[in-house]
User: Fold this.
Amino acid sequence: MRRFCAVALLLSMQKISWAVDLSPAQQEFSADLAQKFQALEKSHTHTVAGIDGWLFAPFLHRFYDELRSRGVDVLDLSPIFLQHRDSERGDVFCKTDTHWSGYGCVLAAERIAEKVREKLKVQATQDSYSTEWQQIEITGDLAQLLPSNSAKPGSKKIQVRNVSEKSGSGKIQSDSNSPLLLLGDSYTLVFHDFYAERAGLLDQLTNELGVAPDLIGTRGSGATTVRVSLYRRTLKDPNYLSKKRVVAWCFSAREFSEADLWSKVPVSK
Assistant:
């Protein structure tokens, strides 16, 4: 079973470049990396995390370096996950699901919030939110990938940190007028849109920053599908991007080699 860490790209609105042309050498490298992952899968070799990072991390770092050379602030979350993998809060990834655990989500939010504060001065409302750890049970999506004649694992108990407004107004909602846009795949939705409702990345970032980000998330690919959703949002509201100062684009690192397509998508019309 492979584990892929999530990656957050912190983009300043002055430096966004959604359409990146890959040179022939870069295309060859991407194809070679995809073949290595496929060979690993066929050989049933387990990915082993070590002190220096995940297997194939040197290959992923070449993607990160390419993005950094183009002015994108890349936040690799694997070091912080490795550092806390033996926490009393449990694993940083779910055992029967492809997503991070409730604790992993909190760690990611803390690190992303640190980077956001470097780029954006937020007017936080002090003591507006309260947190509470809760134990929940999930079945997870990995069971669906097992052969039909295989024994399916039962539900697993994990801890999530619920975030609530002290005013008692209910579930935290994304703010379309926020200067921070959280963009990404299902990592931006887990524990907020499914499995739980108050413990996702949006909720944790709201608690860390004191203000709610805007959110465009998808259960599909974090590569192209979510950028199409962003484009549609700008068609409905031509002034939408003028409200944004920072975009935190969060997705699984496997998107670099396994996404169906990295298409050019305009930011706005």
Notes: The chain has one domain: 6-258. Residues 6 and 252 are 4 Å apart (CA to CA).
